[in-house]
Amino acid sequence: MTTARSQQPRAQQKCPFTVGVTGGIASGKTTVTDFFASKGIRIVDADIASRVVVEPGKPALADIERRYGPEILLDGSLDRRKLRTIIFDDADERKWLEGLLHPLIRDQIILELTHAESSYAVLVSPLMLETSQHELVDRLLVVDVPESVQLSRTMARDQMTEEQTRLILNSQMERQQRVGRADDIVDNSGSLTRLHRSLDKLHQFYLSLA
Ligand code: ATP
What we know:
5-stranded parallel β-sheet, two-stranded antiparallel ribbon, binds adenosine-5'-triphosphate
């Protein structure tokens, strides 16, 4: 029986200087990483890594299928919506799944970081502080906006009601707690021009550290 296992302790890997980017929903993580990417910086996205580890043919998908049966697949791929429903209010199943996937996602992130050839790399993750992913970064940048801005930007982008948006907001780490863990904070409550000015300074700073 194949069981997916984590294999790559970071200490044994050659990762570049890595800046972690995190923030709450619609805080502007993608907007921020798009800026760094435009400067030639390699972006490693934890959300993408989390999909890679359960691609068809990967051992983790076989483990999930063994536990939940073939109906967890949709045309051979993981039915993520069904899986979300299963773990939504079942803490044991959530724990099992996180125990399986988090080490694999971490390995995938490390693998991608080791291939980064830019002066420094950026790891972007909405769950940086809720998982051990923060251990993979040399410096943590938090994208910060007031809740009112998160609400209005999420509602505008995703056509969600205020009630739906608040449910997501309330399930995430509190703003002050996140900001308290940051090495650097970028305020994204103003214009894109203002954001880019702040990011330009941070980019120069990261180049000097890398
Ligand atoms: P998620 O948590 O959902 O992945 P995110 O943190 O990656 O979101 P973005 O997608 O970058 O956030 O931004 C959320 C929305 O807010 C997008 O529609 C984006 O275009 C918009 N936005 C981001 N920054 C600004 C800004 N400074 N001014 C106006 N709109 C902005």
